Amino acid sequence: MSVASTGTPRRTWWRENQQRLTPYLFLVPGVLFFMVYVIIPVFQSFWLSGFDWDGLGPKEWVGLGNYTELFDDEAFYTSLKNNVIWLVLYMLAVPAGLGIAIFLNQTVRGIRIYKSLFFFPFVISQVVVGLIFSWFYAPNFGLFYRLIEWATGHGVAILADPNLVTYGIILAGLWPQIAYCMILFLTGLNAVDPEQVEAARLDAAKGWKMLWYVILPQLRPATFMAVVVTVIGALRSFDLVSIMTDGGPFGSSRVLSFYMYEQALSEYGYRMGYGAAIAVILFLIMMVFISGFIWKMVDDERKGL
Amino acid sequence: MFPRPVEQASPAVRIGYQLALPVALIVWLLPLIGVAITSVKPASDLASGNYFGPPSSLAFSNYSDIFQNSLIGQYIFNSFKVTIPTVIGTLTLSCLTGFALGIYRFRGNLWIFFMFVAGNFVPFQILMVPVRNMTVNMGLYNTTLGLVLFHVAFQTGFCTLFMRNFIRMLPRELIEAARVEGVSEVRIFWYVVLPLMRPAIAALSVLIFTFIWNDYFWATVLTTSSSTQPVTAGLYSLNGQWIAQWQLVSAGAIVAALPPVAMFFLMQRHFIAGLTLGAVK
Hints:
The complex is a heterodimer.
Chain A: H1 2-5, H2 9-48, E1 51-52, E2 60-61, H3 65-71, H4 74-90, H5 93-104, H6 111-123, H7 126-137, H8 143-152, H9 165-190, H10 194-202, H11 207-218, H12 220-236, H13 239-244, H14 256-264, H15 272-304
Antiparallel strand pairs in A: 1-2
Chain B: H1 11-28, H2 30-38, H3 43-47, H4 61-69, H5 72-103, H6 109-121, H7 125-137, H8 144-168, H9 172-180, H10 185-196, H11 198-214, H12 217-222, H13 231-241, H14 246-266, H15 268-275
Helix pairs in contact in B: 4-14, 5-8, 5-11, 5-13, 6-8, 8-11, 9-10, 11-14, 11-15, 13-14
């Protein structure tokens, strides 16, 4: 071995160490990209939120000035309030998704096609969903408008009403989100242990009791995933607001993600620092949830190892 | 099985269920059906107030109209130009990272893994200003490449999570056996692990294709002109251009939705396998 290797010392060194070095070599490109485009920008945003900056000229340090300005910003509170409404109502996607999943968890003929078609709204982009619901709500000829008119005698232009607009957009958002939760629960239901279900049936458990004591505990991983993606979906809501109302009427449908974009790339001059400050607030809200999720995942991982 | 299969129920329940299925589906897809019908209505129908009835004639001309009189064809082409390189780039990077994190035990493994996982959950807005500046400084603002680079980097987070967990489920004996045979690590990756990762690669390609095709936020942040904007951002401007011409808006929306929908129906099994990873233990 030593004789043969003197001719190619590098190769031997590589041979001896390759098990130790390979993972680092393999990680370099991915980690580098992720650092540059995701991890470092998070810190840069924190830094930028201390400046007054139009994106082109010199940056002016204002310390916490942007944050104190937020305190008195009416639009910021509207956005924050809407974000809370989004978060709360979006959670309906979890039980609704479970409901549809239970409804569809059968083996009759053609059920597979039904499952795919129920899942359909999730596959199309939020921009298209937004356009579809804009048409659905459109005053005078929208299907939804007509239904309301038929039921109550007078139609309601949801997207033009400052008090209703956010609910209208959330309903549009729930459509694909329920589909997403449904597919998670369908997969979960598929993996439910049939023996436990049969055993519970022998003990005369059925209906809600069966669901609560036997099925739901087994659906824990699916429920966890559904809650995670729903929380993230609610806080990321940007597309629908932008497409359906552009934040209007009178800024009443803004959410933090949209308001941030509006400020940073505003028509009346870019306010990058102020935008970054709004993003930091949104990030901190998200962090509360992220740290919870990560904590649970680390916990699972430790148990697994 | 839960709930109890309807085959075991009385005939009345069984028939009721069979009837309830299509009714529920129609209600569920009502907005979509409405838009699909509107997209083949002649403009005269809408003008004369025929909003809900069947179209007086099938106006597929709405579709040819949008391709001839708007830039939607260009936008769709732009979407492909962004989506396909992103899928390739992301899968390349995440096969490497997933392999490194899934196979080897080394200091910092779990930390790097959780960096990828945590980065995934970050709201886009906190990245927006720095990423936009960086893209401008690199001279890549309003280019396909600028958009692709960001998407590749961001999606690598999710894909690494997926790949790593997938590789963890592969039988370790295979790798040990190859090592005993003296196969180099790189060759183990290429000849042993990569072929086994095919299902994961298939699942992620469909998922990433759909995610990127449907991306709207980054498209508006990093591109501005019709020569680079993907169809999601394009629809926003077309919507302004086609104001109140719902037959055109509908046709445009349907055309823009088609590629991911086709992808979904062709690769359904992989798509759902990817999406529901982690939903069962």
